[in-house]
Amino acid sequence: MTLDTLRLTAEEAKGLLERREVSGAELRAAYREAIDTRNEELNCFLTLVDADENDGVPIALKDVISTKGVRTTAGSKILDEYVPVFDSTVADRCKAAGLQLLGKTNTDEFAMGSSTENSAYGPTRNPWDPERVPGGSGGGSAAAVSAGLAAWALGSDTGGSIKQPSALCGNVGLRPTYGTVSRYGIVAFASSLDQVGPVTKTVRDNALLYGIISGRDDRDSTTVEVPAVELPEAEDLKGLRVGVPRELNQAEGIEPGVAESVRRAIDLCAELGAQVGECELPRSVEYGLACYYLIAPAEASSNLARYDGVRYGLRVPADSYHELVARTRDAGFGDEPKRRIMLGTYALSAGYYEAYYGQAQKVRTVIAREFESAFESFDVLMSPTSPTVAFKIGEKSGNPLAMYLTDVLTIPPNMAGLPGLSIPCGLSEGLPVGLQLIGPQFSENTLFRAGHALERAIGFDTVPERLR
Fold first, then answer.
1. What is the pTM of this model?
2. Which one of 14, 62, 163, 201 is the catalytic residue?
């Protein structure tokens, strides 16, 4: 049987295996052939796994997810030779479900970035246009699924690193409710924000993979029991209350083509039976980005302190401990981690903690309450996922603030710990546009239902035009 990995969904692959129409080895061979054909151009994978004892649907994991015996770099030279001796909980659950690991995907260094240009191993390229970025930080996972190099993938999302690359690559990406997926074994960036989630071709695939990785884990005290995952079947949105936050849909920098595609998708909600109305989130957009860029760097400066050249990872020899640490960090960290470590260390320093980090945490509470208020009237909120389509490689890399602004729409719900689902809703300038669906905590099933009905009605072709 000839397998078209560009169009094959994970659910279809699972069905082929269950009916014994193909073997796990044949599936793996098809994806490895696609990797051999397209990965050199796109740079999706940093490490490939040659064999796997499992016989299920092949999966790719973002290279911040610890995998026993498989190199895990977090896109950084400081972990270039690091091979974990244990599996993260999500990797362990994928194994337990029989999924085959294909390899580890490229990421901005320590998941810090919005374009996957900050990787120490070179940028990943967008399958729709290799001159453009795939988004970030999880551009490797998103591009791999889009280009048919993996049936599905896992990413991690702190400020938008699943949702934004999924939007730019034409995938479905879920950032789950904070605490529904274990962070054990994930290379930490900002611990109060980091969350692992699925990147897939379809909403049903997304629900399937979320069902595998979610649930309480004794090794992560922030995790909770989650509602049983329901595979979406509904083709209408009758009874659903859809809110359109004015600030998230009219934010400065949203491209006209993006706004038009999102508006059409929201109008489609009404045609599918939903009640659609406007709402406001005035402080969430105004202060969300600034709040995030105090909290995330502060937590990063604490988390990255463990990379000292003593315990594991890169070591640059020196005559004293302090010189060893300084030399190791100078050689091992790229510009973006250094920038965020300095920002975070300053925000936590004596005399500034309450003025910066402490104040940002108070604003975070205000943002969460704004969303709670909106959800008293609506079940789902909708907006663009990214204000722009994929931009050219190098276009924003010299301007950190312009790069940070690409996450202006994904950050507010993340600050509130809310789930968000990005689905493709059309094209602008021949490139995918993402629609962001935001729900209250633990509303993943509602997001899947709404996303599935819209997905069917929109009929977006997820295969990049240049690869058809």
1. 0.98
2. 62
